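Person: Please work through this fold.
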Amino acid sequence: MTKTAAQPTETLDFKRILPIFVIVLVDLLGLTIIIPVLPLYAVSFGADPFTIGLLATAYPLMQLIGGPLLGSLSDRFGRRPVLIVSQFGTFLGFLLLAAANALPLLFLSRIIDGFTGGNIVTAQAAITDSTTPRTRAQGLGLIGAAFGLGFVLGPAISGVALALSDNNYRVPALIAAVFSLASIALTLTWFKETLPPEKRGQAQRPRSSTVQRIVSAVRRPQVGVLLVLIFLYQLIFGGFEALLALFNLSRVGLDAAGNALVFVFVGIILVLVQGKFIGPWSRRYGERRLIYAGLALLALGLILTALTPEVPVPWYDPAKVVSELDADHSGTLSVPLPSADNAGWLGLAWLLAAMIPAAVGGGVISPSINSLITRRTPPTDVGGILGVSSSLVSLANAITPLVGGTLFQLFGTTAPFLVGGLMMALLVVAALRHVRPGPEETLTPTAAGAA
């Protein structure tokens, strides 16, 4: 086989991507500030693991309704106006969360934010507008890097806010609202439309329901299997995300501040993977192989998490934890706590070690799948297909917290993670069989040689 002339290496246009990245980061800071707090906030109002799972379901369930609509609207009217509308919904949701004095208001705040929560879908479409096929995985990976930076900075801000406010959970919610307002201001003043008028609305679509859009997208050759894969992946991983704070509390005695440290650790890994490594990895190995590797690493991380020894951290004080979370002063909590008799470092060390493969695996899967989806989709349909992808993720997130919360409550703290890890291992086998090479791999010079 004769060698062809070396092709120049394409690089990502960071100047074009920077405004999108900064806006997403500031927006995500609001989200990541409340992630370690929300489950324990619900516990303080007497919620049990099943109810906490139901609360985690409210946001993605409403995203399921709004996601495809906002994605399609961004294809028709541009990315900027849709992004602004979704950001205002997030801002109002955080304000209501800060004002909540009972569980129903927590639910209402997540419903409002979820229904208008097209921020990430619209940002993904804007990045797709601003990248080439070879740089798309790296561009979409920057959204993941924004998540990673958010997980580093957001929980740290949350922890400081809780310390200064004597564990007042409303304070992190107010700070999240401030960051959301800042993201609106940045979008209004800095973000330039990435989809010019002449490219809008070129793909004429009949008015259809969310279910019809999903079914139509899943039937597309080569794209459909990726959409099914991202749904199944998130169906397993969503319970891990929703219940990790409760698991950390029940297994190793970490309160909101302690959970913040774990999320910071995970965030640092995500920043390194999605901000530095995923671009070179995708160019060298291709998105398809990254998907295989990510699923395998995540399976390992979930199983290791389930096996975390029940050894609380040395500073664990069960009486103090009950006092912080017992809003109705009943003297008991609706979630189990570990015994303080065998406190030590083993539990935390094991947990952090398990987070490494889980974070690396989770860090490469979503951007790799979404990048491959965009490379197999016509440019005029990208926003709509990413909206369907987001809806499938939202559907999975609406199901798995209920299942995970039920497993947690009925069969113990480790059950959701052990079951999830074993199912993820089966998903690795399924992906190897059904996610096959596509024509886009001819665009990657190294892919042909590696196949």
About this structure: The longest helix spans residues 223-252. The chain has one domain: 14-194+210-450. The radius of gyration is 21 Å. The chain is about 75% helix and 0% strand.
